[in-house]
Amino acid sequence: MLELSRDSTGWQLGYGGDTLNTAIHLARSGIDTAYLTALGDDPFSADLKQRWADEGLDTSLVLTDPARNPGLYAISTDDTGERSFTYWRGESAARQLFDCHGLQAALDVVQRADLIGFSLLSLAILPEAGRGQLLALAGRVRNAGGQVLFDGNYRARLWPDAATAVRARDAAIALATIGLPTLEDEVMLGSAGDANDVAAHWQSLGCAETVVKLGAKGCRLPDGTIVAPEQVLRPIDTSGAGDAFNAGYIAARLRGEEPSAAARAGHALAGWTIMRRGAIPPRDS
After folding, report:
1. C-alpha–C-alpha distance, residues 64 and 92, integer Å
2. Which pLDDT tens digit goes with each residue over 18-28?
3. Strand spans (E) along 102-201
4. Greatest CA span in the chain, whole angstroms?
5. In a 3-state reduction of DSSP, which class is residue 59?
6. What is the mean pLDDT of residues 135-157?
7. Structural domain includes residue 20
8. Number of structural domains in the chain
9. Where are the beta strands (DSSP E) in 60-134?
10. Is 283 a member of any domain?
11. Contact criterion met (CB below 8 Å) for 16 and 51
12. CA atoms of 3 and 88, how far apart (whole Å)
């Protein structure tokens, strides 16, 4: 989506979205990463696609819905860097991804991937038929020997009720080989009291490598170990922190590193992100 974030000079226009943020970070780290979504046939969509390509992201799977445009959101932050969002995305092109021209050719590519990643937000924005198609695609990737990454990123306003979100989440967990839930989200869904509860539930559904994100406290690894960040920071903007952690963790795991080292890589990238504005800050030194 298009992203409005405010600095000392006023509102700035960028881009963001949970899975997109993770994909950009992965592309920046040298991982061969493509992004499956839909944009419109408008100048903003063309600019987004070009900017993603400039980051090294493969945009060959970005489809076009000529009747729709990108979604839009604005970030507001308080004195501690904690953010809140205002959204305009009810008619975004991504919602109709599975009705776009060229979809089948894109799905043929994706189902041969080494890893597919999506989130509960990905499921939330799709109509029911689209959710089923995304889950089926993840199942085909897993059946072909690929990995399935699922982030249980929950936004209550996108769901008719928590029970519907829980059903979709559990269906995705059952397909996942790597799970990256956030404790706060799981508590809001009413299905956990602590990180051990979250891990037990996700692992019971078949997601053995479940890493529970705990915010500033770090994360819980699949074996129950807590890995804390190297230092406690005073964030400027917490937007995209969990997405950056996901990318740092996955990139390290794809390089063959153990979960503990991957968690530290995730914390480092999340730490870099929260000390800059926007969900996907520009690269710097």
Report:
1. 11
2. 999 999 999 99
3. 115-119, 147-151, 178-179
4. 50
5. coil
6. 97
7. yes
8. 1
9. 62-64, 72-77, 83-88, 115-119
10. no
11. no
12. 10
